[in-house]
Amino acid sequence: MALDKSRRSTAAQYFMDEEEDERNPRSTAQKVVDWLNKASLASSSSRIELLSKVQESIVHKEVDLLDNFLDEMLAFLTDRNADVRKFIVGFIEEASKKDWDLLPRVLPSLQMLLTDSSPQVQKRVIQAFNVVYRNILGWVAKATTVTDDMTSVWNIQSNIKKMIVDMVDSENDGIRTHSVKFLETLVLLQTYPEADSLKRENDFSLEDIPLGLKIARRRKLEEEALTVFDLMVKFHGSPHISSVNLMACMGSLTLIAKMRPQFMGKVVAALETLHTNLPPTLSKSQVSSVRKHLKLQLLTLLKHPAAVDFLQNITTLLTDLGATYHEVMKSYPKTDEIRKRIKRSATGALETVSAKKPKVVADTAAAPLPAVVTETAIDITEQYIMERMCPELATDMVIMAMDNVPDAMPPLFAAIYTPIAAAGTQGQIKHVARLLATQLNAVGLGPGAALAKSTPVLRDDDEDEDEDKQRIATLVQGVVGGPPPAVPPPPTLNLSNIKHPKRRALKLSEITRPMDERKRQKMTVDAVRRILRTEKNALFGGVFPLYTKMVATLGTTSGEDVKQTVLEFIMEDLRKRLHLALAWLYEEYSYMQGFNRLPPALKTKNYNPEMNYSSLLRNLISAIIHRPDIKDRETLLYRVYLEAPMITDEAIEILKELCSTEVVCLAILQEMVVRRPPRFLMYINALLIHTSHENQDVRETAINCIVALHTRIDLQSIIEEYAILYLTFLRLPKPPEVLFGPDKGRPERSEYWTEEAIRACLYLYLVLLPIKQELIHELAATYVLTGADVKRTILRVVEQPVRAMGMHSP
């Protein structure tokens, strides 16, 4: 039989032992003794396994053995291994659930482990005390008399609570998180539920504590809970809180608001403050996580019936956090719930007063009851701000705060900033007023904070017996001996008597400091670029002339950086933006001619309007010439020369040089002769020079342009005199210098008359000869004075023009 038993697996042997234990209860105690002895000698892992068997046996199977072996289990509290000590904490938690009478024996051990050197053990103690504290309250509430053990337990638990509250400031992040969860439990256990409270199984509250219990006074417990809640709100708004602690505290406050709706207003205010003042120590990823968690908690609160009074605040926060309309409406309370909540709020005060029975039923009903302050300090301050909020006040606040704005945008602001969807609406103004009221109330400023300080504390029915007796005696004496003492009304705050300090006129020079020149130039250029990018918006909006005027004025009156920026913008698409360039030219021309005058503040030492105009025109022409990728280059060049208010000498020289390679420039010169009469001599002279060019295309194009201009009577004499001048050059012993040069197509000068040089002097003359036949006399006079080479060349080239004169020529 022993051999068969040894062959079984460990699990089979365990279940077989359980069956034997059920048949023989004494064997359980023997096994527990055996396991405890082995555990004292075993290794850490084996020790926890053996202690688990002991716990299973004495806690869940044979509860009667728990009292016998409790001290032996608590002896392992001093074990060196932290895991063993953590296990003992769990054992104490389970033991307190099974038998509340064991609390006097296990609670000192729990207090000792709370000061353990291992953070893991401390966290496990805090976690276990959430259950143990609930058991303590239940044990005390069901007791008929207060014993010495209860008094001892109550004192120990008070010390443990103080220690855990102090651990909120611990250096360990996990300990702080577990401490916050315990504070949540404490607030829920030591406050009253309401009709809208979220219900949980085996829930415990102040209603479960008897009124006459001396050791646990309802009023003191509630005051302690309110103090702890304020501590949680303060910890929630700490600027150095970690993201893990922040989200844990946020979840705890949300749960408190759902289970104790009387805290809903303070929780919403805390979440509003968090939204505007996120801790600066959070990274971008942590900020994103916190904002998502905040959005989730707000959506959860929105579903609660008690959130009806704060719908506008919650929905505004959700909108700022990026929640969609569908998400908000999905969590929005139903209409029936809103109606029920409003009806319940209207009758709630009356039900509350009638539910509490006065201890002395006398003529005290005739005495006036103190008014119940339903508005919180934040609500009063918010109303105070709303009544005075105006655009002028908001502007003054912004100007006063500008001195504290940093030079660089904080990464936290860039991470959390979202555009305001409903800016300027009444709801958004109210939201801003509430945020300001929250911050003012946090530092003890504003009418709400003043009223909160002066409001008397209302006592509950469960006062100390001595105080009750004194109060009853006073009331009886008042009834017998004379009228009852008058109850002073609660203090009211007269907002109209508040004196506002005179606002000193702000000077911009006092609240600002000079900006670095380089930074100022960069900001100016960036602003100009943003203006330039609004070209399409101006076109579609019907204000394109104003846009053009603005761009032209910026280019004219600004510095070199802005001029270069505007010029680069025009050159990006010169074909479509040539009108901007021409408008700029006309603006420069108006300043150059004195039609407009630049303000003295914008003038510099090197200000020269003539140079500015000439430089702009040169840059435009050079940009067209040196960018062959531009479509319709000829048309653009044509428009610049013909539509510019004035053509400078430099621009004419550029055009003359370009005529040697671009034939279209000759046509431009022809049009300029006709359309720009004030300087037509300069334009026609530039055209006549190219009639003797060596390049055939250039020469023929120039001659055709001159022939077309010869039809104008006012230009005939000029053209004929130029042709005769070149004809008389043939009388000279050697060719003149004007026939040579890069612009004539003959870079090297010749000392002798060559056929090319002779023909260059005859090109224009021979074309005009059939048109103006009287010019034949000049040819005869020149012919007799030339050399033999020149005469031979004249005879070869003159035959065709003479035939064109016809037989009937006079």
Automatic annotation (TrEMBL):
This is Symplekin/Pta1 N-terminal domain-containing protein. Residues 1-28 are annotated as: Disordered. GO terms for biological process: mRNA processing. InterPro entries: ARM-like, ARM-type_fold, Symplekin/Pta1, Symplekin/Pta1_N. Residues 119-340 form the Symplekin/Pta1 N-terminal domain. Keywords: mRNA processing, Nucleus. Pfam families: SYMPK_PTA1_N. It is found in: Nucleus. Gene3D superfamilies: Leucine-rich Repeat Variant. It comes from Cuerna arida. It comes from the Eukaryota.
